[in-house]
Write a structure and sequence with these properties.
354 residues, alpha/beta, UDP N-Acetylglucosamine Acyltransferase, domain 1, 2 domains, twelve-stranded mixed beta sheet, ten-stranded parallel beta sheet, 39 strands, flat
């Protein structure tokens, strides 16, 4: 049961919070939220699609979130809502064991520069805050976080353990960065001269705008000059690499193990599926969607859907893959045709078989 053990809420109150229509026992107390196979007494579960109706009928959940017309076990309470996923987000927030933020203050083991501004910030064990750094009230720096000199972090941010925010990096308000990610490391830029690699100094910075979330073990590199920018509301998964001077628009979704090479530009609302790769200096238009494991080498117009390596129109890519899967059968058919043609030719040249 994924919940805070002390919380209990009546179904009538939960339905009112969600703006849903309650069927069944309005006094039933809900103490947790769990998926259909795992739910038990005191849990509420959810049915977000009609294809899960059979699983709902087998579930031991005490109550359900569901849209109109979906069957649940007889006698169980259900809150009918128009958008099950949106309602589930509210329920998960309500039962989250992480809902209480640490109180503002500085742990004795933390090292905070005397000229850093940290009023109203929760600074936990072994945090380092550099000179002239500015951090907004309501922000939490979990154990082991490093904040470099002159870095700026906005209000109500959540910076999880061992995150590194390098010098002169700027984070907006309500940014969340998960454990072990690094914002503002040097970009990867070299030239080969006289038998050795010469590194370009990266003297720019990184700007992470408001309401961005960055997953664990991801990296956003510092610009060579200027800024590497991630637009407001963008969501970045774990293990993502964003190289120097990249500009990511607002509201993008970047899934795990994506690599974006230097100086790329992503428009607003772009989606990059897992393990997609983008070559350097490529522009991807607003609303484009790139399928998992695709390789993007040239400019992408707005709104298109691409797949494959090199990335092409997604529908065309799926057709080609379907044809490839038939290649074995086609090869066997071709061998059979060649054999039959050979037999016919032999017969045509053999007087005894005429």
């Amino acid at each position: 049961m994924a919940s805070a053990p002390s919380l209990s809420i009546a179904m009538s109150d939960l339905a009112a919070r969600l703006g849903g229509r309650l069927e069944g026992d309005m006094t039933l107390q809900i103490r947790g939220v769990a998926a259909l196979p795992d739910a038990g007494a005191g849990d509420i579960s959810w049915v977000g699609d009609a294809k899960y109706e059979a699983a709902a009928l087998r579930s031991r959940a005490a109550a359900f979130l569901a849209f109109e017309g979906v069957a649940v076990p007889p006698g169980r309470a259900v809150i009918r809502v128009a958008d099950v996923d949106a309602a589930l987000i509210e329920v998960l927030r309500l039962f989250s064991p992480l809902s209480d933020r640490p109180a503002a203050g500085v742990h004795p083991s933390a090292v905070v520069a005397p000229d850093a501004i940290t009023d109203g910030v929760a600074i936990l064990a072994n945090v380092h805050v550099g000179r002239r750094a500015r951090i907004g009230p309501g922000t939490v720096l979990h154990p082991g976080v490093y904040v470099g000199d002159e870095a700026v972090i906005g209000r109500d941010c959540m910076i999880w353990p061992n995150v590194v925010i390098r010098d002169r990096v700027t984070l907006g308000d309500r940014v969340e960065v998960h454990a072990n990610s690094t914002i503002g490391a040097d970009g990867f830029g070299y030239i080969y001269r006289r038998g050795r690699h010469l590194k370009f100094p990266h003297i720019g910075s990184v700007v992470i705008e408001d309401d961005v979330e960055i997953g664990a073990n991801s990296t956003v590199d510092r610009a060579k000059t200027g800024v590497t920018r991630v637009g407001a509301g963008t969501k970045i998964d774990n293990l993502v690499q964003i190289a120097h001077n990249v500009r990511v628009g607002a509201g993008c979704v970047i899934v795990a193990q994506v690599g974006i090479s230097g100086s790329c530009t992503l428009g607003n609302g772009v989606v990059l599926g897992g393990q997609a790769g983008v070559a350097d200096h490529v522009r991807i238009g607003d609303g484009a969607m790139i399928a998992a494991q695709s390789g993007v080498r040239s400019e992408v117009p707005p709104g298109v859907r691409l797949a494959g390596t090199p990335a092409i129109d997604a529908a065309q890519n799926w057709r080609q893959l379907a044809q490839l899967r038939r290649l074995g059968d086609l090869t066997a058919e071709l061998k059979d045709l060649r054999r039959r043609i050979s037999e016919l030719e032999s017969a045509a040249h053999d007087p005894e078989r005429r």
